[in-house]
Specification:
Layout: E1 2-7, H1 14-29, E2 34-39, H2 58-69, E3 72-78, H3 86-94, E4 104-111, H4 119-130, E5 134-135, E6 140-143, E7 147-148, E8 151-152, H5 155-183
Parallel strand pairs: 1-2, 1-3, 3-4, 4-5, 4-6
Antiparallel strand pairs: 7-8
Length: 188
């Protein structure tokens, strides 16, 4: 399976730290999968102007193509002003409406306080649902206090990241089997 991890902000380090931990967990569990990690801090993305995603070039084309070809997507983002970062919203705007059809999506959110724990529910899940994603019901919410010196120090967060990884891979595997069974019903 193709797995894409997207750290959805151009500033800060906590989301990237969480996503890198998730990447190492995936690599330990499933070494046969192709895993790609994209950090928006390291990419030079075009601003969406309504073109087809294939009409862009450079980092924009690389990222959007990887997302379109992925079977599993993990999206990590920090909460800014009680919402998702504009840079992450731009990524969604670069893609077609059905971009996440038949893809399983897991979510990780970082924030300065517990006050924003529902932002994934109210801001991100509706977008992903509109784009036809199969969204994992639970997500991992990580507060500022769960980090220290560039690492996650809360064992409960590490446990929940491991559980998100395992359950997302499991759901994607079952979903792939269902799709294969459906496709095998046809003779062409």
């Amino acid at each position: 399976m193709n797995i894409v991890l997207l750290s959805g902000s151009t500033v800060g380090s906590k989301t990237s730290t969480a996503m890198k931990y998730l990447q190492s967990e995936i690599n330990q569990l499933e070494s046969e999968h192709q895993v790609q990690f994209f950090d928006l801090k390291e990419l030079d993305l075009s601003f969406s102007d309504g073109r087809n995603y294939l009409d862009y070039s450079g980092d924009t084309l690389t990222l959007t193509t990887a997302l379109m070809q992925a079977d599993i997507i993990f999206i990590g983002f920090p909460v800014f002003q009680a919402s998702i970062p504009g840079t992450l919203k731009n990524v969604f705007d670069l893609l077609p409406v059905n971009a996440f059809r038949d893809k399983v999506v897991g979510i990780i959110a970082t924030a300065g306080s517990a006050k924003h724990y529902l932002i994934p529910e109210t801001q991100l899940k509706p977008i992903l649902g509109y784009m036809k994603a199969h969204i994992m019901q639970t997500y991992v919410f990580i507060e500022e206090r769960d980090f220290s010196q560039g690492t996650i120090v809360n064992d409960d967060i590490l446990f929940r990241l491991n559980a998100l990884t395992t359950s997302t891979l499991r759901v994607a595997k079952v979903y792939a089997q269902v799709l294969e069974e459906e496709n095998n019903q046809y003779d062409f």
